[in-house]
Specification:
Elements (H helix, E strand, L loop, with lengths): L57 H16 L17 H7 L2 H4 L11 H18 L3 E3 L5 H18 L8 E5 L5 H8 L3 E5 L9 H7 L4 E7 L11 H10 L3 E5 L19 E5 L16 E5 L11 E5 L2 E5 L16 H37 L6 E2 L14 E2 L1 H7 L3 H8 L19 E2 L9 H20 L1 H5 L25 H7 L8
Parallel strand pairs: 2-3, 2-4, 4-5, 5-6
Antiparallel strand pairs: 1-7, 6-7, 8-9, 10-11, 11-12
The structure holds pyridoxal-5'-phosphate.
Length: about 500
């Protein structure tokens, strides 16, 4: 089956972890002083016992990490990781971020020495205002979920200022909203009301009307959602919540398919968040690059956490004098290097480029949908919705599993044998069985998208002919199938080497 597909095989180095390597006395670097300790460190502050560090030469360390990189980064495949809007992260913006003017400044410096940094933060704030219609953005939150939490903190201060804190104690969301919405609402002390989906893929207006009351603090919702479904009644939803006296927060993580097409404020929303590591081209590391953008109306702006970057005739300022601020969400004013990368992406795209990228991402997704629909064993979520989806679509491999016993995770693992990165399945709860959510985006070529679909189609076909090969995949990765059971057992977590040495690898049922 694999004749025409690009095959991949990972490097494999059978090396121990670095803490188990080396020889006593071997060194990569020598420090001044007989004992190796810096004489300027007062005796009282010096360690009594040497740290348990591996002893290796510099070339050995270099070679070890090169091997690890070859094993883990060798693939650099096509990643259509849905809900994450994977984009090309330009080395140019990376290079700018590492310039000393950025990398060697500290956010605690006097603002007069940070004028360049504050200028692009302010400029990016203005761009996001343009895209959303909001009146002020901040970048203090440490990611999308943290921006949702910022929203809850702002709402609490807004309620307190109106004498309604404790009275309005409910936040409404949908079962399909990203879990950070109910989670942050609950963390901030609100009771969460979760609406369920109708046949058309979103909750009915009637459900919302039944849920709102004089206890409603806010609605927290994404649109389109992670299934690529857009709720066309959203204006009416906002009106209903406002009429009940609550606020509306737009989780705009899935902005790619609508950017430049709608503005959250014009739909009536009071606040929104964007994820710079999705839509705006900043790199997506594990859990994002530690910055989320939170924007709100002028009415809510006084409650934003300090400092807010402002501008007047004398330059740019860090405004800490905010008596009504909701308190700290995170230190300082945000991860400036990541904001710079998002600013660079947005400025280089321009308004027209952003519009076009949005169109392309929807087009690419619907091209992909048309091809996926022809593959046996797959079904589209909410089959009764005939029309096109937005920038992604949730699919299901339930028919494939029924026919062959091969699960969506088996298919995902087998695809890596052809250099294809894991796709996104679904946030919890899994409303769609055996879910998968590819997102083609605007930056992959048609050949890349075709190649991705070709590999998926070939693996599905293989599942019908030879399910055992798919179920035992991957076969060409550095490490084969891992036992994931420990992931859900905190007793088996060892986040440091010291703990690992202490607990070893206890069996799953060890107490
Ligand atoms: C719709 C939506 N909202 C919020 C988040 C949370 O963002 P973060 O992972 O940056 O905390 C995500 C992340 O995947 C998301 O898809």
């Amino acid at each position: 089956m694999t004749e025409r597909l690009l095959r991949y095989h990972a490097s494999r180095w059978d090396e121990p972890v670095i803490t188990e390597m080396g020889e006593p006395g071997r060194r990569g670097m020598m420090f001044d002083g007989d004992s190796g300790a810096d004489a300027s460190i007062p005796a009282a502050l010096r360690r009594k016992t040497p740290p348990e560090l591996p002893e290796l030469s510099e070339p050995e360390v270099f070679r070890h990490y090169l091997h690890l990189a070859q094993m883990t980064l060798g693939m650099q495949g096509v990643s259509l990781f849905g809900t994450c809007t994977m984009k090309y992260n330009s080395p140019l913006s990376e290079a700018i971020a590492w310039r000393p003017e950025m990398a060697e400044t500290h956010p605690g410096q006097d603002e007069s020495t940070l004028q360049g940094t504050l200028e692009f933060i302010h400029r990016f704030d203005l761009m996001l205002r343009e895209l959303s219609g909001m009146d002020q953005f901040i970048f203090q939150p440490g990611g999308g979920a943290d921006a949702a939490y910022t929203n809850c903190a702002v709402i609490r201060r807004w309620l307190a200022a109106r004498g309604e804190l404790g009275k309005r104690d409910e936040i409404i969301t949908s079962i399909q909203a990203h879990p950070c919405n109910p989670a942050t609402a609950a963390t901030a002390g609100f009771k969460v009301i979760t609406l369920t989906l109708e046949e058309n893929g979103y909750p009915s207006l009637e459900q919302l009307k039944a849920a709102v009351s004089d206890r409603t603090a806010a609605l927290m919702i994404g649109n389109p959602d992670d299934m690529g479904i857009y709720n066309p009644d959203i204006r009416e939803w906002v009106r209903v919540v406002h009429e009940a006296g609550g606020l509306c927060f737009y989780d705009h993580a899935n902005f790619n398919g609508v950017m430049g097409k709608l503005r959250a404020r014009e739909l009536g929303f009071d606040a929104c968040m964007y994820m710079l590591h999705k839509t705006f081209g900043a790199p997506k590391g594990g859990n994002g690059p530690s910055v989320g953008a939170y924007g709100c109306s002028a009415e809510l702006a006084p409650f934003l956490p300090a400092p807010v970057v402002t501008k007047d005739d004398h330059g740019y300022h860090l405004d800490y004098d905010r008596p009504q601020a909701c308190g700290k969400i995170r230190e300082y004013f945000g991860n400036a290097q990541q904001v710079m990368k998002a600013y660079a992406w947005t400025a280089s795209m321009g308004a027209e480029g952003i519009h076009e990228a949005s169109d392309l991402s929807v087009l690419a997704n619907n091209y992909m949908d048309a091809r996926l629909a022809k593959i046996r064993g797959l079904s589209r979520s909410h089959a009764e919705i005939a029309g096109p989806r937005m920038e992604m679509t949730r699919w299901s491999m339930a028919p494939l599993q029924q026919d062959t016993g091969v699960s969506v995770l088996d298919v995902q693992r087998r695809m890596t044998d052809f250099g294809i990165d894991a796709f996104w399945l679904s946030h919890e709860p899994w409303l769609v069985p055996e879910p998968f959510t590819p997102e083609a985006g605007e930056m992959w070529s048609k050949e890349d998208i075709d190649r991705w679909i070709d590999v998926l189609a070939a693996v599905v076909e293989e599942a019908y002919l030879d399910p055992g090969t798919v179920k035992s995949a991957p076969h060409r990765q550095a490490i084969h199938k891992l036992d994931g059971s420990a992931l859900n057992d905190p007793r088996q977590f060892s986040t440091t080497m010291r703990r690992h040495r202490r607990i070893g690898n206890p069996p799953a049922d060890a107490s």
